[in-house]
Amino acid sequence: MNTRRRAVREQILRAAADLFREKGYRASTLDGIAARLSMSKATLYTYFRAKEEMLAAISRETIEAFTRELALVLRSSLPPDEKLRRVVRQHARFVIANRSFLTVFFSEEASLPARFARQLAAQKDRYDKGVESVVVEGIRRGVFREMPPRLVVFGLLGMLNWIYKWYNPAGPWGAEEVSAAFLALVEGGLLRAARRGPRLESRLHRLRRELAVVVKALDD
Predict the structure, then answer these.
(1) Per residue in 61-99, pLDDT tens?
(2) 65, 112, 175, 187: least surrounded by Cβ within 10 Å?
(3) For 169, which DSSP code?
(4) Half-sphere exposure of 17 toward its Cβ, with a 13 Å CA cutoff?
């Protein structure tokens, strides 16, 4: 696929994801997507023959992007605590930068063809297990407390994945503030107390204050 065709395809998928997020997948049509792009339906058909293909492409590209970023972290020589911080930051950045894709990814899974849905579920499970391997490594090396690794992953990814539901681009927090607040929760509950020096304690205290601001705003 040449560069121009790849760029147009990406533009189509972003327009489709925006429309699916706004109107819902079932209420969206190829006509609506073509109109949003000021593109003829005939041209649209040269890229995607049906909106089901667009939905599958959005879901596939989302999980592949998550997987690529995680693979880079897992192959690195970073200690497990820094690996986990990288995972949190990258995950938060991606969700915030691709809210429409993530809304479709999490909300429209039931609309996927059964065979593709099974493949996607397997890919998501592999991603979860990759993050879990970081937690397992941290516990084995004495960096993290003894906790059920799978439970830690469920809690962590639950927070990160839910960002697409409440995040407001016009609000006061960017990806760095959100990930810092989440890391304050994780580090406060997962890192062993023996590893906390004055510098880390000061950082955790600051991050807890930032988290309190986030929680208060959500309550409001």
Answers:
(1) 999 999 999 999 999 999 999 999 999 999 999 999 999
(2) 65
(3) T
(4) 23
Read off the pLDDT band of 165 (50, 70, 90): very high
Task: Express as a percent the part of the chain with pLDDT over 90.
Answer: 73
pTM of the model: 0.79
**Which CATH architecture best describes the domain 1-49?**
Orthogonal Bundle (1.10)
Q: Tell me how far apart the alpha carbons of residues 84 and 88 are, in angstroms, rounded to a whole number.
A: 6
Strands (E), the chain: none
Kindly report the CATH class assigned to 56-219.
Answer: mainly alpha
CB count in 10 Å sphere of residue 188: 14
**140 φψ region: left (φ > 0), alpha (ψ -120 to 50), beta (else):** alpha
Q: Which residues pair with 191 in a beta bridge?
A: 144
Q: What is the mean pLDDT of residues 123-129?
A: 96
pLDDT at site 164: 93
| Rounded distance between C-alpha atoms, residue 20 and residue 123, angstroms | 22
- How far is residue 164's CA from residue 100's CA, in Å, rounded to a whole number? 8
The whole-number average pLDDT for the span 11-24 is: 94
Task: Give residue limits of the domains in the chain.
Answer: 1-49, 56-219
At 171, which amino acid appears? G
Instruction: Give the Cα separation of 99 and 86 in Å (integer).
Output: 20
